[in-house]
Amino acid sequence: MKWKGKRQSSNIEDRRGQSGSNRGSGGFNPMLIKPLLKILFSKTGLIIVGIFLVFSFITGNNPLSILGQFFVGNNEQTETSKTYLGSSEENELAAFSATILANTEDVWNGILDNYREPTLVLFTGYVSSACGTTSSATGPFYCPGDEKLYLDLSFFQDMERKLNAPGDFAQAYVIAHEVGHHIQKILGITDKMQQLRGQMSEKEYNQYSVRLELQADFLAGVWAHHSQDMTHMMEKGDLEEALNAAFAIGDDRLQKQSTGMVVPDSFTHGTSEQRIRWFKKGFDTGDIEQGDTFNANPL
Ligand SMILES: [Zn+2]
């Protein structure tokens, strides 16, 4: 893909290096009380307290809050001021993802009126969202509750090394698939599915999930169609990369693979053949009207 130098989206939340669970932990260490009291009641301690009170009087700060910050620390601040230094390979993947997201914005703004651009959250390990706490082993996912895409960039490395689905266009397809879920949310399809959930058996619901997933593949194909019209980013072999990825991460292929590997957003994505066919249909037509996977028979 010829993606370098193109616009990068600003709808990125870089949470890499922050683990979802330990934010705001820590605090005052009780072991410090004795030595602190000792210092406080010594001569130097009294002088320090005096200087401190004068200082807070001049600056207008509450002396207790300054003391609190000094001794207890402000976890929120240390967390956000810590910049994550990824490897150059990882940072390039981050730049690539921001570029592809920008491109999906350009395409979908052209197709839908009042398109709400989603945010892409980059994370490492675990992430918390409106959908709960999720491990990166789940693979990339979209959370309808906060309309954000979640991606641990190591998934792209896994695609290449473990899933035999290499190539930048294969990675772009994964992002476009998650954006496809966002389109489904905007169009009200996701909410309809959620309503249906309580009214049917698990097995029936899974069949609907497959249709939802194949539609996201179709929408990724629609994106690729218009993206190519607009930017000509695709190069020879790129379409094959996406089709190969669709093949490699289909349910049937995944179940044949050994355990301990990652799976993109759930096990209910349809067979490799179905995924390729729907992506290709979106790519060939570029027409969202052609993507009614819910009434397609055969699927
Ligand atoms: Zn999906």
Structure description:
This protein is an alpha/beta fold. It contains twelve helices and six strands. The protein has helices at residues 33-40, 43-59, 63-72, 75-81, 88-111, 154-161, 168-186, 189-197, 202-231, 238-248, 251-256, 272-285; strands at 12-15, 119-123, 126-129, 132-135, 141-143, 148-151. The strands form two sheets. A four-stranded mixed beta sheet has the order 1-2-6-5, with helices on one face. It has a two-stranded antiparallel ribbon with strand order 3-4. A hairpin with a 4-residue loop joins β5 (141-143) and β6 (148-151). α5 packs across α9. The radius of gyration is 25 Å and the shape is elongated. The two termini are 31 Å apart. The model is unreliable at 21-28, 71-81 and 258-266 (pLDDT under 50). The structure holds zinc ion. Zinc ion (ZN) binds next to α7 and α9.
